[in-house]
Amino acid sequence: MVSPARVTAWLAAWLLGVCAAGGTLAARTASQPRGAITFGGGDGRSCDAAIVIAGARDTGAGVKAQRRWIAEHLPGARRTGSALARRHGRVYEVVSLTGAGAPSVCFDVSGFFGSW
């Protein structure tokens, strides 16, 4: 069961319009092995420029990919929370951070969200 605080965070993100529609799916190329996780889209500073995670087979793999992207691109950043938003048929996760100069990063998780 999802905690009431988590539901409130999701609704707040959606109601405030944290994320706008956008983001393009990363294209798989012939040189990428099947099942490889790749990152496309933008830099994640807003949901207009969300980081698109492609190739994650389920939510667990997608969350690991988010952590990997943060560690590689924002060394020293620590995840402090997150909120989900659904907008124009897409699902976004806004990850709150501390350290490394970025207050949050937006990921387009539409490709794997809810898959277990």
UniProtKB/TrEMBL annotation:
The leader peptide range reads 1-26
Q: Which UniProt keywords apply?
A: Signal
Keyword Signal attached = yes
Top-rank taxon of the source lineage equals Bacteria
Protein's UniProt name = Uncharacterized protein
Origin species, per record, is: Methylobacterium trifolii
